[in-house]
Amino acid sequence: MTELKSAPHGEEANAATHFSVHESSSYEIGQSRKLTTKRGLSNRHAQFIALGGSIGTGLFVSSGATLAKGGPAFLVGSYTVMSVLIYMILTAVTEIATYLPVPGGTMNYYGGRYVSSSLGFMMGWLYFYSFAIFVPFELTASALVINYWNPPVNDAVWITIMLVLIIVLNCLPVKFYGETEFWFAGIKVITIIGLLILSFILFWGGGPEQHGILGFHYWKDPGAAKTMILGGDTGRFIAALATLISCVLPFTFAPEMIVVTAGEIRAPRKTLPKVARNFFWRLIVFYIGGTIAISVICPSDDLALTTGGKGAGSSPWVVGVRNAGIHGLDSVINAAVVTAALSAGNSFLYLASRSIYSMALEGNAPRIFSRCTQGGVPIYAVLASSTFALLAYMNINESAADAFNWLLNLVNTGGFISWVCFENSLEDALEHGPFNYVVVALKNLPDVYSIPDIIQLAITPDYTSIVLIQNGIGIEQPILDAFPSNIVLSGVTMIGSEQNGTHILHNDPDILYIGPFWNSALPREDQETSCQRFAEMYRLGGAESHVPDDITYHRWRKLVWNASFNSVCASTHLDSGTIQYTGAAEALIIPAMNDVVAIAKAAGYELPTDIQEKMMAFTPKDAYLKPSMQVDAMKGRPMEIEVILGAALKVATEKEVEVKILRVLYDLLKTRQWAIVNSKN
């Protein structure tokens, strides 16, 4: 016996046949409760992660080698060029991440979504490799920096301690990562600001061993620009190019931090633009301002920049303060560099784990990496990414360290490739444009999941019209509350269909009644136009559509059938034909219909006096309909109790309408719902 032999023209849109596709869809979303990453990062966390999350040893130490290569002019020029490039990439990143801040959404996700799956696959593994290889680099840097104090401890011990620390931090819920990075980034920011202030003082000759104003003396002696390999302009060009390449490291994958955290930030569409605006000042103050300060206090020909030893010994900041006669500050800077390296390693492990997690969600990596803990941590992704950190031990051996450097040198190139690929992804995304309409046709289960949360990623404020083709009454206001600047269209559909084995047959054309749920903040004409356009598109698809004066009237009309047949069949596990043969129609179905008619009247909607007879005629005894709530109950899925019965009973309570049967049906089905949900848990 099939679930549904035939359905009359007036059969509800929620009958088992028509909603078979939507049922599986809503079941997947609502029931799955699949453990995923969680939005545990606050605006405060996001700001500081973007501000200092990727600042490692580059700005503190590696900038000295860059200064030695090209001189102060090429150092400042290269950092300025890179800052402009990074800001351009950042604005593109923010635009697409704000539009679609999906959990697990990384640069490769957008490449796969808007360009091709092959590009997404390539970018995914490129990012994973780049992020993962940075982890042992930062761990090694931390160990080397600690050696500045010459402790009698092998580097492997420090690497092990810090490796365990960052793995533990990444295995905790993301809010702990955010909190840790907040304080780490705070230390880095305070250190850089302090060094900038100190540089300003030294500029005016405020050092203990300075005699007169220093100014831009080192731009004149030893000079603003150096040559490399060859002399003259050719040599200066080579030096400028080498400087530009060597300054990439401090910037590498800084914009990606915003994309990856977008899926775990609360209120991403409000937070991300703020983060991007603050990032601009980070580039100006920290990178451009920092390199100007370095060029002022440190000569480019100082041998300590290349032979200063371990840790902060070769840092241009340390060289500058030493030359000014300030002693003891080098240890403070060294401690800040340790913090910076540890923080960067922590961040890159986070990025690597989220990258492979994103690939697993897309099917580009083993599915096991998509599994998360109760706290929202992709634990297997974290552990897999952590294995790369073991490469840090290669740096203990000199010959193995050379091999590790070869692996690391691929990262800078990978950064440029990823940025080019992302710009291509953005162009395709802009070509597709935002959605004109988002049609919501899944089960309406407010006690199981939130419709606004599900659709919010697809909604463009002030642009997208939201079309609700769902059961129940009172379903529009929560959507309007969540999207106050968008048009909301409410639709009631009647579908004549039947299920024959695995096939769904449509006996009659679909009928859609659709109308605006009036938004007083928007022009009435715009709402009417959007509604008429959608109705016309529906007609062009071969179905019938109408735009009535008041769509809520049609919702109440449909509720007469839903609240009666749907509820009684779900409560008894009997199809509509059997219910009528047992004589329960007079005892249960008709009284339930009468309740709905009375509630609708109290709410201001006068339904036809013969509507009960019409609904019974639409549901003959030989139809053997299994409505959607009955099918859901039989298959152990949540039912649409709240929007079909709960909302009507709420109106009855407000209007003081006495109901005879709806309350009993509601209580019975809520009990059944409790059993279903708890059996799944």
From TrEMBL:
<keyword id="KW-0472">Membrane</keyword>
<dbReference type="Pfam" id="PF08546">
    <property type="entry name" value="ApbA_C"/>
</dbReference>
<feature type="domain" description="Ketopantoate reductase C-terminal">
    <location>
        <begin position="550"/>
        <end position="672"/>
    </location>
</feature>
<keyword id="KW-0813">Transport</keyword>
<feature type="transmembrane region" description="Helical">
    <location>
        <begin position="377"/>
        <end position="396"/>
    </location>
</feature>
<dbReference type="InterPro" id="IPR013752">
    <property type="entry name" value="KPA_reductase"/>
</dbReference>
<dbReference type="Pfam" id="PF02558">
    <property type="entry name" value="ApbA"/>
</dbReference>
<dbReference type="GO" id="GO:0016020">
    <property type="term" value="C:membrane"/>
</dbReference>
<dbReference type="InterPro" id="IPR004841">
    <property type="entry name" value="AA-permease/SLC12A_dom"/>
</dbReference>
<feature type="transmembrane region" description="Helical">
    <location>
        <begin position="114"/>
        <end position="137"/>
    </location>
</feature>
<keyword id="KW-1133">Transmembrane helix</keyword>
<feature type="transmembrane region" description="Helical">
    <location>
        <begin position="183"/>
        <end position="204"/>
    </location>
</feature>
<feature type="transmembrane region" description="Helical">
    <location>
        <begin position="79"/>
        <end position="102"/>
    </location>
</feature>
<dbReference type="InterPro" id="IPR008927">
    <property type="entry name" value="6-PGluconate_DH-like_C_sf"/>
</dbReference>
<dbReference type="InterPro" id="IPR013332">
    <property type="entry name" value="KPR_N"/>
</dbReference>
<feature type="transmembrane region" description="Helical">
    <location>
        <begin position="237"/>
        <end position="259"/>
    </location>
</feature>
<protein>
    <recommendedName>
        <fullName>Amino acid permease/ SLC12A domain-containing protein</fullName>
    </recommendedName>
</protein>
<feature type="transmembrane region" description="Helical">
    <location>
        <begin position="157"/>
        <end position="176"/>
    </location>
</feature>
<dbReference type="GO" id="GO:0015171">
    <property type="term" value="F:amino acid transmembrane transporter activity"/>
</dbReference>
<feature type="domain" description="Ketopantoate reductase N-terminal">
    <location>
        <begin position="425"/>
        <end position="517"/>
    </location>
</feature>
<keyword id="KW-0812">Transmembrane</keyword>
<dbReference type="InterPro" id="IPR050524">
    <property type="entry name" value="APC_YAT"/>
</dbReference>
<feature type="transmembrane region" description="Helical">
    <location>
        <begin position="48"/>
        <end position="67"/>
    </location>
</feature>
<feature type="transmembrane region" description="Helical">
    <location>
        <begin position="332"/>
        <end position="352"/>
    </location>
</feature>
<dbReference type="InterPro" id="IPR013328">
    <property type="entry name" value="6PGD_dom2"/>
</dbReference>
<feature type="transmembrane region" description="Helical">
    <location>
        <begin position="279"/>
        <end position="297"/>
    </location>
</feature>
<dbReference type="Pfam" id="PF00324">
    <property type="entry name" value="AA_permease"/>
</dbReference>
<feature type="domain" description="Amino acid permease/ SLC12A">
    <location>
        <begin position="45"/>
        <end position="421"/>
    </location>
</feature>
